[in-house]
Each structure stands twice: as structure tokens, then as C-alpha cells.
Amino acid sequence: MPPAFVEFLQFLLSGITSGAIYALVGLGFALIYNASHVINFAQGEFVMLGGMLTWALMSAGLDLPLAIGAAVALTVLAGLALEKLAIEPARDADVVTLIIITIGAGIFLRGVVSVTLGKDFHPLPSFSGDDPISVLGATIMPQSLWVLGVSALVVIALQLFFRYTLLGKSILATSYNRDAARLMGVNVGFVLLLSFGLSAMLGAMAGILIAPITATNFEVGIILGLKGFAAAILGGLGNGLGAIVGGLLLGIIESLGAGYISSDYKDAMAFVVILGVLFFMPSGLFGRRRTERV
Amino acid sequence: MTHSFKTGLMLAGLALGALGLADPSPAHAEDDPIRVGSFLAVTGPASFLGDPELKTLEMYIERLNESGGLNGRAVDLVHYDTAGDANKARTFVKRLLEEDEVDVILGGSTTGTTMAVIPLVERAEVPFVSFAGGVSIIDPVKPWVFKTPHTDRMACEKIFEDMQGRDITRVALISGTGGFGKSMRGQCMDVAPTFGIEIVADETYGPGDTDMVAQLTKIKNTEGVEAVVNAGFGQGPAIVTKNVAQLGFTVPLYQSHGVASKKFIELAGDAAEGVRLPAAALLVAEKLPMDDPQRPVVVGYKATYEAVHGEGSVSTFGGHALDGLMLYKGAVEAAGGIEPAAVRDALENTRGYMGTAGEVTMSADDHLGLGLSAFRMLEIRDGDWALVE
Amino acid sequence: MAHNVRPSGYSKFAKKQTYTRRMGTKKNRAQMLLSERGGGLSLLILVILVLPLFLANNYHYDVVVNIGINAIVVVGLNLLIGHAGQISLGHAGFFGLGAYVSAVLTARYGVHGLVALPVGALGVGILAYAIARPVLRLSGHYLAMATLGVGLIIHIVISREAWLTGGPDGMYVPPLEVMGVAVYGGPVWYWIVAGALILAVWLSLNVIDSPVGRALRGLNGSEVAAQAAGVDTTRYKVMVFVLSAVMAAVAGSLAAHFSEFVSPTKASFLQSILFVTMVVLGGMASTFGAVLGAVMLTLLPQVLADFADYEQVILGLIMMAVMIALPKGLVPTLTALVKRWVRRAGS
């Protein structure tokens, strides 16, 4: 392999590693948006909860798989509680009011975790060891493959869920037209609850998968949440595949930008690209063009 | 009318209530507690500096009070969390100075928050001991400002000195974009020529980055890189270390004093083997020779801290807070009181104080008082710190 | 496919308020105008005049001046979010840019502060104008992302170009000089910022009641309908976007000279979120709500600082509780309550 190609491949793999993380977080945004048109700014905190709870349970003596299961379950509970206690009572409020509620929820969750579990960074063990895998001269860590693989599985599972189950169809129906869905007998309240539970689950899984790569602490969700939101928007809101593509693109732009242009400005480049895309495609890459009714 | 009337009422009510105007602070009497003010980055990206610093201050002030206080007076700690935000730091320091009327200010976890408040402290003429690393804090010297940790400039010098011994001349830098990384990067660039070192690559990474392989690939493919220096703190250096291992990049890797806690080894895992960094002797407390004069100080602090916060939890950052408190204690005892100007003079006259960072001897033109020798070059071997001879 | 039944605006609340306003008789409307423009403003001035009696030291002045500075930004942002229904998650970028233009021009190039301030405002105005058209074509969350992106890019540039801006650790700013005398200290700045805030509120109230304001309300109801009625919606959106950006920049310049120090956190994403939260908490589409939102969220951290570790827990709870209990924000909800009470008392 020519060195220039190996270098390019390495940049690409690096970008995919970060991108898969953004994608998983972005998927959580897309899911809640689909059901409720709310952007849940506490999504990053679900990611943080997944990682931190797994660490806490492991240090309490649980095995990794058991700790993961329990951490996901607890995070889902937090997601359900958020919907039931904070979103549902304010259901008729403006979207922007709901967003402020989720921002408040994010601050609250960070506070609770810092008080109860402390402020330190904690690592989780890699699921399949730390020996890099060589791909045509470039390398990727096995944990990154885990992130990629789970992301792919989640997308497929969600597609099947939305296409073939009644529950999934109710969520879609609610997303298109809440009132019509209600008239058709869909329990809209339950659908909203479900979507928060599901996206809390996705967030927690993301947090657990990436903790072996980046370590986790109570504030790890802030920047991941931001990147996930950017990924979901870039891909087109409410579109699961869009969030995945958006996340991967974001990661690849950052890494190619750092590799070929300037690591100082890689984040800025990512946002310039997002702005550029939005200027030409105002609903993101895969978003549906919306028409407004008068 | 009602609309605005209500607004106005609430505005006034809130302002009055919240500012606590009901209780004007009482005048200081001779046997009142000594008030130690502190502003630390307990949350935010620099929380792993501020968190152990606050824990140390709380712990040792409690001990101080249990053993009869300072000059027979109790010591009160007033602390505010800046989250590393310089603007918040300014407001809180005004609060410490004007509302809480503290007798000394300890803290400022980061160079940014410290620099932001220096004009306030200088104007108020209150002794101020910072726990931040930047050399700009004490160079040029400001009358009321002191600091306890080694400077980032010294860290660069220590690293380059070690490199000279290994015949390394071509070096790649990778630094965090936060204040710490940016400042140390500048200092390293600055002192490199005096050690005959050439910086051949210069990359950065952001505070929440999850992967630095792209930057390191670029460094690896740069012609003739003989060593990599990483200036940064938090989880970033751990990811850099793991990425270096992933790429099979075998040149020596130097980290900064910004990772000087066991946490770094825990986060970076096996990849940390062979990494070198300059740090205070605290990290290798038990490995110091029995006759090392610093040994009792660092072994004592390590035991005290870890008894409360767990095995392996001690960091040099908490040590800086301890040094700050003890320097103030020494100065109050020497001055025979808390009169600010006398304490300031006593601080400046500190001679041979043995702290966790090393032996401190201050003077009118040195408000740090540490030599390069107080820095030890450590290497990570078998998941633990080892002294490089 | 019609994906969303909601109009493109971010706030459906402002629309409702508009209806009530429009349906009122001419006389009622005149009274309301009197109340908001005359009564509200004079009350604000009264509070500003009386407040210094209760300020004991520089710390108190620091908090109150910061409230004023934030309020100027939020009053401007409220025009955009509350009245034009356009979200911006990037206003801290304009705020920070204004601060840094003043800082860099005065500290590095010796430009007079009173010259640097309008230069910063003009520069930000031009920047806002340049990006306004493409950005404001977007709606809802896409607009939020675009403005967020603009703010983040500004923040990144400020943090990286250390040779100019001092980088992440920030830089000192020389005090403002007026006729050779340095403006320093809480009391002086109190009156400067108070004057600027009164001007901002007056400007905002006037914009709301101008033809532009009416067009804006049309926007918030339905953009398509407004367009059909011959309103050049884009032009008005651009105008109010630029106005709010300039107000943020002026506030930024004032903040820089007041603190004598700037750091990139002024331009950060979290600061942008804070500004939006102030608008929503105080009450969208209410100028005095914006002021109250700034008061609340600037004071809260000072009050909560005493709770140490529990600060964030409590702050998060308060934000959630207020928005759940008063989804329209403090001032509109309270106003409605008082009105109902007055009506009942009158009948």
C-alpha cells in the first residue's frame, strides 16, 4: 500500500470511530424528535448516565454484562421519569419551553451524579481487549468495531420496529399528526413515554460502548450531546438513517480536517460544512421537505 | 400598569433578598475566626484540579481547627465554584473581598481564572496564593500574588533536559486547546531552542475529543520525529496515550505535570507503560530515599488524603492546595497575626518551607520559590510511578 | 408530506397573545400601550433610581451590572425569539465578538474605547446581515443548529487566535476613558449600564409597536399567510436579527470594559443557552419578562453558590419547575393572573 493511502485510511478509520459515537447519540435525538418534535437536550446526560452507572455498579462488585444491563435499565427509568414528571405536565407548552425543561433536566442529572458518584473520570474495560486490528496497514481498536456494529444493529432493529410492529407504527403516526393518531386510537401519551424510554436506552448504550475509549465522568454528556444534535440535524431530523450518516460524516470531516488541514480548526470545519449543507438543503441530508399549512 | 408593576416589585424584591442585604457583615474582632477565601474549578473541564484542591483545603482546615486553630483562632473556609470560568471567578472574588471580607485568598485552579482576578486582589491588597501553573502569574512579580505549583515553563525545561540525556532533538508537540495546553505549548516552543530542541510537528485536540488518531498519524508520518510531548490535562492525555499505542508508534512519549495522579494510569491502562512526565515527589512518596527531607511531608499528606478518599486517589493538585494553606499558616505565625501587609511580607520571606511540591524559598523577585530540582522525572512502569535516575 | 402541523415559528404562544391584542378595541389598546410603554418604562426607571440605595459594596454592584448587561442582550434576543418566532442559539457569539472587538482594539491597537464600541457594533451588524438571509431561510431546529454553528465558530476562532485574543485564558481590557478620565468602579458602571438598558427597553417597546412589529407578529402567526398578504417577511426577519445581534455586541463591549477582562466563555455555547433560557423563563414576547429572566438567572447562581455541591441540582429543579408551572414564562403568567384578579375585583 502506498503510504499516502495508508495515511488516508487511518484518517478515515479515526473519523469513523468518533463518527459512530456521534451517530449513536444523534439517533437518540432523532427518536424523541420523531414522537414529540422535542429536541431533548438531556440526551447527552443519558449517555453520561449509561457510562457512570455501569462504572458505579461494577465497582460495587457486579460483572460487566450484569452492570451494563442494570445501568441501561436505570437510565431507561430516568428517561421515563423525565417524560412522566417533566415533559407530560407541560405537554401543551411551546417547543422552546419543552427544550428549556430538558436543559434543566440535564443540569439536574449532572448535579445528582456529581453529588452521588463524584466528579472523577472513570474508565470501563474494553469488551474485546486492547489489541489494535490492522486494516491494510492502518489500525482500528476492537472497541470501535463494537460501537460501529451496535450502531448498525440498532438502526436495523429500529427500522424493523417502525415498519412491522403496531407500536412502531403508532410512533410514526404520532410523529406525522398527533391529533389524527389520537383519533385513530393511538395512545399518544404512551407513545411519548415509550420514545423517551427508547432514546434513554440508546443513550445509555452509547455511553457504555464509548466509555472504554474515552472514559466517562459527570460532564461527558455536554459535548457528546452537542455533537449528537449536530449529527441528527445534518442527517435530517427524525430520520434514523440520517442521524447515522450525519454522525459518521461529522466524525470523518473532523478527522480529515485535522489530518490534512488544521487540527486547531477541525471542529470549526465541521460546523462550516453543516452550515453549508443546511444552506442548500434546509432539512438536512435526508430530512423531508416540509410544507406549511395555512 | 399591573403588568409592569408586578415586574418591578419582583425585580426589586429579588435583588434585595438575593444579595443578602438583611445581614450586613459584622466587623472583625480579635477572636473572630480567620476567614480563608477560595475559588476553585470544582466542576467543569478542570474539575479534577479543583475537586482534590477543595477536598484538601476542607480536610486540613478541619484538622487545623481540631488542633487549636491558627494562632489560637478558628479558621473558616469560604469557597465558591468557578467551573473554570474566568468571568465567574471575578464575581466570586469580588464577593470574597467585599462581602465575605476574607483575610486571604487561596486558589484559582487554572491560570485563566487566576489571571482574571489578579487586578482585583492587587487593588484590595489581600494576600493571594494561586494553585495554577502558568508562569505569567508570577512573572512579572505582583506584590500580593504567590503560587505553589511548578510553572508550565519548568515542566518544559524538565522534559527537554531529560531529552538531552537521551540525545533527542526532534520533537512533536500535541496539546489540548484549553488554557493549560495552550499555555504550556507556548512555553515549550519558547524554551526549546535553549535545549537544542527542534519542534517539528505541532498538533492540537479539543476538550471533548474522543479520538486523536488523525493528529498522531500526521505526527507519525512527519520525517524524523524522535519523541512526542503531550501538554494537556483531563481525559485527553489518556486518549492520546492509548492512540499512540494503537498506532504502534514507539518513540518516547512525554506527558505533562497535568496528569500527575494515579487516575491517568487507570485511564490509559497498559498503554501508559514507559510514558515519562515531570511531577512533584508526592507521586513517588514511598519510593523516596529514607533520608530525603521531603519524604515525611509527602508520605504524611498521601496517607491523610487516601485514608479519606481511597487508595491511589492522591494527586499533586491537592498537594498544591496543601502547600498554599501551609504557606499561609507559616506566614501568619511568623507575622504574629493576620494583618494583610505583614502576612504578605512574611510570605515573601518564606525560607526553606518543605512542601509537597518541593522546598520553597521565596524572595522579593520570586513568588514561587521552587527550583527545577523539585521536579522529578517519573516513568510509568508496571502500572506505577518510578523515579528516573 | 405535511410533516408538521405547527407553523414554522418557534413560539405558538406569541401568536395567541397577538390575537388578544388585535381583538381589543382601539381604546383598550391605547391603554395597554400606555401601560407598557409609559408605565412599564417609568417603573423600570424608578427601580433603577432606587436600587443603589440598597447596594452596599462593589460585589453588589458587580451582580447588578451583570444583570443589566445580560438584560440588554436578552431584551434584543426576545425581539427575535418572542416576536419574530426565530430561535438563536448563537447570540453569545455576537456578545463575545462585541466584547473582543472592544478588547483587542483598545488593548492591542490603542483605539479609544468609545470608538471601539461602535466599530464592534457595526462589525457584528455587518456579519449578522451577511449571514442572516441564508440562516433565516431555515426554520425550527434547523435554524437553531445554524445559529448554534455560527456561535460555535466565533467561539473557536476567539479561543484559537491567541496572538490576538489571548486564547482560552482571556486578556485584560483597559478601562473606558471619557475625556481623559478612566471610568472605573461599580457605581459609575451602574449608571452607564442602566442608561443602556433603558435605551434597549425603549427601543424594544418601540419596535414592537412599529409597522415592523406588526409585520413580525404576522410572521409568528403564519409566515405563508403574511407573505400572501404582501409582507416581505424575510426583510423583517433580517432586520430584527441584525438589531438583536447589534444589541448583544454593544452589551459585550460594555461587559469587556466593565470587567476589564474578557475570556472566550463569554462567547460559548452554554452562554447562548443561558440567554435563551432567560428569554423563555421570563416570558416570551414580553420585554419586561426578558428583563426579569436576566435578573433571575444572573442572581440564582449567586444565591445557590452557598449550596456548594447541590448548586446544579437545585438550579436544574428550579428551571424545570418554573417552566412546568408557568409554561408561558413568569411575566405573562403573572400578568394574566393579576388581570383576572383585577377583573374579578372590579365586577
TrEMBL record, chain A:
The keyword Transmembrane helix applies. GO terms for biological process: amino acid transport. Keywords: Amino-acid transport, Cell membrane, Membrane, Transmembrane, Transmembrane helix, Transport. One of its GO terms (cellular component) is plasma membrane. GO terms for molecular function: transmembrane transporter activity. It holds the Pfam family BPD_transp_2. The keyword Transmembrane applies. It is a multi-pass membrane protein. Its main location: membrane. It is found in: Cell membrane. The chain crosses the membrane at residues 12-32, 39-58, 64-83, 95-113, 133-162, 183-210, 241-262, 268-287. InterPro entries: ABC_transp_permease, BCAA_transport_permease. Belongs to the binding-protein-dependent transport system permease family. LivHM subfamily. This is Branched-chain amino acid transport system permease protein. It comes from Roseospira visakhapatnamensis. The lineage of its organism: Bacteria, Pseudomonadati, Pseudomonadota, Alphaproteobacteria, Rhodospirillales.
UniProtKB/TrEMBL annotation, chain B:
Belongs to the leucine-binding protein family. Keywords: Amino-acid transport, Signal, Transport. Residues 1-29 form the signal peptide. Pfam families: Peripla_BP_6. One of its GO terms (biological process) is amino acid transport. This is Branched-chain amino acid transport system substrate-binding protein. It comes from Roseospira visakhapatnamensis. Residues 33-369 form the Leucine-binding protein domain. It comes from the Bacteria.
UniProtKB/TrEMBL annotation, chain C:
InterPro entries: ABC_transp_permease (IPR001851), LivM-like (IPR043428). Keywords: Cell membrane, Membrane, Transmembrane, Transmembrane helix. The keyword NADP does not apply. It comes from Roseospira visakhapatnamensis. It is a multi-pass membrane protein. The chain crosses the membrane at residues 38-57, 63-81, 88-107, 113-132, 139-158, 188-208, 238-258, 270-300, 312-331. GO terms for cellular component: plasma membrane. This is Branched-chain amino acid transport system permease protein. Its main location: membrane. GO terms for molecular function: branched-chain amino acid transmembrane transporter activity. It is found in: Cell membrane. It comes from the Bacteria. The keyword Cell membrane applies.
